[in-house]
Specification:
With 154 residues, the protein is mostly helical. It has helices at 2-9, 12-25, 45-56, 66-77, 83-107, 113-135, 145-153.
Length: 154
């Protein structure tokens, strides 16, 4: 009761300080975590295989862009489509297009050709890691590309 009396008889500055102290004492609400695309426990071996195949196709570089694109288009038009396969195929298509484009641009100059070779090697390794994780049913998002795909498909 004395707290109420102090608040009513206090000046505006004191009231504001009391509100700030009360706000500091209250725990802040945690931000909601974004739902992540993961293989559901009921994900079939076929879904994991298609998701992994989308990523593994990067080993062939340029012709490989066609395979994840076909997986994505086929899955998009299927009646009981899998969000897991769709997500991984979309990521793989975008990642592979960007990687091949960057390699072509860097290879166009003589001085940056070694950089293009290193980028190609690192890009293939990153794609294989994505394929392994997708095959085991674990979460995988390419850096920057995964976030863009999430926003694009939402």
């Amino acid at each position: 009761m004395s707290d109420e009396h102090e608040l009513h008889g206090a000046t505006a500055v004191e009231e504001e300080e009391a509100r700030q102290r009360a706000a500091e004492e209250q725990p802040e609400a945690e931000p909601e975590a974004e739902p992540e695309i993961e293989a559901a426990p009921a994900a079939t071996a076929e879904e994991k295989f298609l998701a992994a195949l989308s990523h593994f196709c990067i080993v062939a570089l340029f012709p490989a862009i066609i395979a994840p694109l076909m997986i994505w288009m086929t899955e998009r038009n299927r009646a009981g489509r899998s969000a897991y396969v769709m997500h991984h195929a979309q990521q793989a298509v975008l990642y592979q297009v960007l990687l091949v484009g960057a390699i072509i641009v860097l290879s166009a100059t003589v001085f940056l050709s070694p950089v293009a070779l290193l980028l190609a090697l690192a890009g293939v390794i990153y794609g294989v890691v994505g394929g392994i994780l997708a095959c085991t049913g674990r979460k995988f998002n390419y850096l920057w590309v995964g976030e863009y795909v999430k926003r694009w498909t939402s």
